[in-house]
Amino acid sequence: MPGRFVRRTILVSLACWTLAAEAAEPAAPVVRSAAQLESVLASSQPSPLDALTPYGKRRFLQSLRWNERGLTTFSGQPLVRELEVPQIAAVLAFIDADAYLPMVTRDAIGAPLRLPAPTADAEARLAQIVRLVEEGTGRREDTAGAVTASDDARLEHRFVAVFGERPSSHTLRELPLGDLLPYFDAAALAAQGTKDSVATRFLMAVYEELRARGVDTSRTVDETVLRSMLEAREFGQARAFVAGKPHLAANTIPTVRDSLGPRFKGRSAYRYEAVNNTLVREALPHPRGAELVMVVDAGCHFSHDALAALREDAALRARMVQAGLVLVTPPRAGFSADFVGQWNINNPTIPMRLPYGVGGWQAVDVPGVPRFFLLKDGKVVGQVTGWPAEGNKAALLALLDGAAN
Predict the structure, then answer these.
(1) What is the Cα–Cα distance from 336 to 208, expressed in whole angstroms?
(2) pTM here?
(3) From CA 201, how far away is CA 84, in angstroms rounded?
(4) pLDDT value of residue 143
């Protein structure tokens, strides 16, 4: 399963997270398929989902994805926003996912956020953006193709069509209180790690309106804004944002040293200096000939497994380095100081870098990690996706062998 999905929704792939605890014996009923869930919902039988607001329940149910083996994906956002920790635990036990309780509840800070129900219009607007993002992600997943500038432009165009070109403070003030969160969530989905988009400006405008109305934003909302800033590489803005917010204090916000400047147009990346918590921007031009780009993310245990193989298998590591290995996090991912910093401390000859932004990295800007891209003269000519329990060494070596021929 991919390690990057629709972001900013606490979307959990059950295949891409290491279980954080042994599952306790769940209270009946427990559902392990879409059909079982439908049966419970169709009956008069109470369930832990009843603790959610009707809107939160709809949002949570819409996030569930199943296959023949059971639940594959769910969004913890409605749970964290609206429920106390024991209620979250009951919902996770209900869907046979209680082992994910520590990961889901780490952002359950402050009082639950239970606003009035949104209007049907606000829900419909959010649904349009959700559908567009999911369709785009699924299409790229099917084709293993890169996220293109036209994908971003299409999403931005649709967001403008649904919400307007400029976020009017007057319009936001006139909105019912319950409509603000759907508007906020739609903007967060559409922002996609870009700092100058209409959606990003809209996100901040809705956030300010929530604060102006006295809404406690500590449950998921502050964290969403911070993540949007980190994904957009707005580190100075992020540092100012976390000041005075103790619940965000655990986030390490680095300082930045950028000698290239805003006019630099080539491919570049940040090198992280953990000793002084500094990101140093460096040019990273495509070499003539072959290059192997390995993309990993902190939130996916398959990425950790692939990194373990790179670290422990000397022969594999030699082949990858010989192929011009460049190790990076996803171009739209946030920054994890622990993940990048610890790897670089332990593996100084194979540094992990943080792409400066999407520009220059579109060839590897795809859902699903870990992923290995073989480039020749800057063009992708082959790739390998994933690192299952048995590893993916054979496929990776076959990719490298093909490049040598």
Answers:
(1) 26
(2) 0.86
(3) 31
(4) 41
Q: Are 343 and 329 in contact (CB under 8 A)?
A: no
Mean pLDDT of the residues in the chain: 88
Report residue 104 as tokens: 């889901």
Q: Which amino acid is at 281?
A: R
Handedness of CA 132, 133, 137, 138 (dihedral sign): negative
| CA nearest neighbour of 59 among 14, 110, 113, 21 | 113
Q: Which amino acid is at 228?
A: S
Q: What is the pLDDT of residues 125-180, one digit of tens each?
A: 999 999 988 876 544 443 445 666 667 788 889 999 999 987 777 889 999 999 99
pLDDT in tens, 107-119: 898 899 999 999 9
288: left (phi over 0), alpha (psi -120 to 50) or beta: beta
Strands across the sheet containing 278-283: 255-258, 278-283, 268-273, 352-355, 325-328, 290-295, 371-376, 379-385
Q: Which two tokens stand for residue 94?
A: 């209900």
| Contact indicator for 353, 271 with CB cutoff of 8 Å | yes
Residue whose pair of structure tokens reads 């332990």 in the numeric block: 346
